[in-house]
Write a structure and sequence with these properties.
The chain is built from 12 helices and 17 strands. The chain is an alpha+beta fold. It has 2 domains: 136 residues, 3-Layer(aba) Sandwich (Creatine Amidinohydrolase, Chain A, domain 1); 220 residues, Alpha-Beta Complex (Creatine Amidinohydrolase), CATH 3.90.230. Strands 7, 8, 9, 10, 12, 13, 14, 16 and 17 form a 9-stranded antiparallel β-sheet that branches. Strands 4-3-2-1-5-6 form a 6-stranded mixed β-sheet, sandwiched between helices. Strands 11-15 form a two-stranded antiparallel ribbon. The longest helix has 24 residues.
Length: 392
């Protein structure tokens, strides 16, 4: 059965271009202004390029395409510079509260001139976004030290508003649609390329866009692949294969993330059953401790089920999510990631739990997991697709 979108979210899909409410944008900008005041910053440069840089959209509602640089000065109208001239019409439509101009030969050169017009002083300019060394050199040559506010931005994004959660629920639904489409099309003779095509067709028609579809296929009785690959191959599915995937589709920058494994044409063998049982056990143990106030160390300890079963992990078992790849990023005893063991989870935080179990020789593995919302008493599933290791 196709994943079901909650009816109250349909109006967002029906909108010509969806928008957050004025009160939601005001909340974000007030929060950023407070951070700037606390850090002694008068002006913020926010930057994005190559479809990355979520702060641009968070502040202005423009989802970055190619290069975009903007200036946020509390109490004044934003000004943004877009590198590709043909992107200006849509940028002006979506970021309609800002002054949007062409970046010309030097986007950052225009930013410097605008900052001078605003009376900017050295040491009182903040920066968020993936600005390269050349752009950073332009800013520092004009104003000296620039104050990095990336970590402060991540802290602002950690707790999601109710409006943001609705957009992420749409991204989760689209990701579910993609995973269901893969399962529906996973038949002997179908290639990985064809599976990827089916995945994207499941959400593009609803206004969704691709983030990742990592896909892997290998014979369960003679495996040679521990995790889905980042690029699909021309390999065709065969009876007795496992097909596993990690899929994220996004709705105007708000994505889900779901991981699943399927057996093709016959039941999983003993090895794969044991791996998936360890993954399921770790997932249940981790979600059993997650709640507001739980510590990262509790998640780390809960993951020990994997190693106790004789297996390892090939990825972090949990990471923060929703507008970026956020902390905490927690590994297991065989693949530790540096993290603060005393970091506490908070209500309104999105995380992905993904105990991706592999054999110690990295010849075989399974995928399971999904994006979850931390609540005061536990977790809420953002995805609707059933868990498990079904035969397709």
């Amino acid at each position: 059965m196709a994943p079901v979108l909650p009816s109250h979210l349909q109006p967002l899909l029906d909108a010509e271009y969806p928008r957050f409410s004025d009160s939601e944008i005001e909340r974000r900008r007030d929060a950023m202004a407070n951070v700037m005041a606390a850090k002694g910053v008068d002006h913020l440069v926010f930057y994005g390029a190559s479809w990355t840089g979520s702060a641009v959209q968070w502040l202005t509602q423009w989802p970055v395409t190619t290069e975009c640089a903007g200036i946020f000065t509390p109490g004044r109208q934003d000004r943004m510079f877009i590198h590709y001239y043909n992107h200006l019409p849509l940028a002006r439509r979506l970021a309609k509260e800002a002054i949007v101009d062409w970046g010309g030969p030097s986007t950052l050169g225009n930013v410097v001139e605008e900052l001078k017009t605003r009376g900017a002083k050295g040491g009182r300019i903040g920066l968020i976004g993936p600005l390269g060394h050349e752009g950073h050199a332009i800013l520092t040559k004009a104003f000296g030290k620039i104050v990095p506010l990336g970590r402060d931005y991540v802290n602002l994004r950690k707790i999601k508003s109710s409006e943001e959660l609705d957009w992420f629920r749409i991204g989760a639904w689209m990701s579910d649609c993609g995973m269901q489409a893969m399962a529906d099309n996973a038949k002997p003779g179908v290639s990985e390329h064809e599976l990827a095509n089916a995945i994207e067709r499941a959400y593009v028609g609803h206004g969704g866009n691709h983030v990742i579809h990592f896909i892997g296929t290998t014979p369960m009785n003679n495996p040679s692949l521990p995790a889905p690959a980042q690029y699909t191959s021309s390999r065709k599915l065969q009876k007795g294969d496992i097909v596993f995937a990690e899929i994220s589709a996004h709705y105007f920058g708000h994505s889900g993330q779901i991981l699943r494994s399927y057996a093709v044409g016959e039941d999983p063998n003993t090895l794969y059953k044991d791996m998936h049982a360890a993954a399921d056990g770790a997932y249940d143990a981790i979600t059993g401790v997650l709640r507001a106030g739980a510590k990262a160390s509790e998640v780390f300890e809960a993951s020990r089920i994997i190693e106790d079963a004789g297996f390892e992990t090939i990825d972090d078992v949990l990471h923060g999510y929703g507008g970026g790849y956020f902390p905490p990023v927690i590994g297991s005893t065989t693949r530790e990631n540096p993290h603060n063991p005393d970091e506490e989870f908070v209500a309104g935080q999105l995380v992905v739990v993904q105990p991706n179990v592999v054999t110690r020789d990295l010849s075989a593995g399974v995928q399971t997991g999904e994006m979850l919302l931390i609540t005061e008493t536990g977790v809420e599933r953002m995805h609707d697709l059933p868990r498990g290791f079904p035969v397709v």
